[in-house]
Write a structure and sequence with these properties.
Length: 130
């Protein structure tokens, strides 16, 4: 990979765009064991609204990572499953998750340090402006 791999119009940005949305990776991971109906996905994931789940599934379907299948019977029902392309994206998601597990405490400590510095800075500005 060259250093230009992350510039405009590069394919790597496609993957980063997919990873940038938190729910994309979560929904893909929730589908890793097989097809699920939307209600099953919401129960499995937790904390996702129906609207956001629907938007995410449509986005993943648009990008070719998820397939939507209508189920026979009444009332109408659908299920979603990973495509081969979606299944191939599980390895990078797993790698990012492993990195987060290994380095999550360091990131949170850096965030806490940054928040403390910002609070101290605000306190100094407040004292000088009084």
């Amino acid at each position: 990979m060259t250093t230009d791999a992350f510039l405009a119009d590069c394919r790597a940005r496609l993957a980063f765009d997919l990873l940038a949305n938190t729910w994309n990776a979560v929904v893909l991971w929730a589908l890793r064991d097989g097809p699920r109906r939307p209600v099953e996905l919401r129960e499995r994931i937790g904390g996702i609204s129906s609207k956001v789940l629907t938007e995410t599934l449509r986005r993943l379907q648009f990008n070719g990572l998820v397939d939507r299948r209508a189920l026979p019977g009444a009332p109408p029902r659908v299920e979603y499953r990973l495509t081969a392309l979606g299944r191939s994206f599980l390895a990078p998601i797993d790698a990012v998750g492993a990195w987060a597990f290994e380095h999550g405490d360091e990131v949170m400590a850096a965030q806490e340090f940054g928040e403390a510095r910002a609070e101290a800075r605000r306190g100094r500005l407040g004292e000088s402006g009084a």
